[in-house]
């Protein structure tokens, strides 16, 4: 527990174990590239087109007027920030380095890097869906997860319509796993230019919805550069995971992203991951494969359980995962 950043006394200097080599932390671009902001209350045809275009171009976008109640969002953010302000002894019961434990608090875990640690504490929660009446997830989490997952499922339906798949293609096992919530906390850092809150990685799941809060820090890979994602009040940042890339035969991409700490203020973000069931077989949709039309099958079918085993072995970098699963 002594390694938990948010529980330790403030560091005056950055410990060597957190220093990334310069080639692994190129600075973000000063270019004024912004993620599309899509109003989900707009006409369905326009929303469908905007979601598909943003997904193909950047793999990331932000959504507003999404229908998750403002109160549910505010309560979730306040509860998460309150948790990380607790004394170390109050958080100790949640701390575990067992990566197979579904609900745990952990710190600075390597992500297939060269052994460097990164400037983040994380509270990970696995919530079955629908939420079990006897679940210990708490009312605040439950009131947040249900509508947030619904937004993700609606985005998947819009993508299906735009790609020519049946609207419920991603329902069932492809989205039937636990809803995973990662509450990421990045304390103020004494030397943010030499470390990372999260190193470059791609998400392992189907689709991710992120509340990034009012403090910027998320950076997205775009055309060989890194772009800073500016917070939009009340918005979710949406991105696609590897399972969506495999299922769409590469039409939609899982894009690398990272998190940068800062010296002045803490940052807390809430990432909601929609996951397949562990035994779900994920494969390119037949409708998106045309061996004679220049769109051959690009990925082999893989059980999600097997995907996760390989993902944990090769690391979360896009190139490593592609090499493991591309035909």
Structure in words:
The protein is α+β, with helices and mostly antiparallel strands and 327 residues long. It has a single domain, classed as B-lactam Antibiotic, Isopenicillin N Synthase, Chain (Jelly Rolls, Sandwich), CATH 2.60.120. The chain is 26% helix and 20% strand. The protein has 7 helices and 14 strands. The protein has helices at residues 44-57, 70-85, 88-91, 139-163, 242-247, 304-314, 318-325; strands at residues 37-39, 60-64, 104-107, 121-127, 179-186, 198-201, 207-211, 218-222, 225-228, 236-240, 257-259, 267-274, 281-282, 302-303. Strands 1-2-10-7-12-5-4-3 form an 8-stranded mixed sheet. Strands 6-11-8-9 form a 4-stranded antiparallel sheet, with no helix packed on it. Helix 2 packs across helix 4. The chain is globular, with a radius of gyration of 19 Å. The mean pLDDT is 89.
Helical coverage, percent range:
25-40%
Structural class: alpha+beta
Globally, the shape reads: globular
- Tally of strands: 14
Q: Which parts are unreliable, with pLDDT below 50 for 5 consecutive residues or more?
A: none
Number of helices: 7
- Helix and strand element order: EHEHHEEHEEEEEEHEEEEHH
The main pleated sheet reads as: 8 strands, mixed
Query: Which CATH C-level class is it?
Result: Mainly Beta
Pfam family, one: 2OG-FeII_Oxy
Protein name: 2'-deoxymugineic-acid 2'-dioxygenase
Domain Fe2OG dioxygenase: 176-276
InterPro entries: DIOX_N, IPNS-like_FE2OG_OXY, IPNS-like_sf, Oxoglu/Fe-dep_dioxygenase_dom, Plant_2OG-oxidoreductases
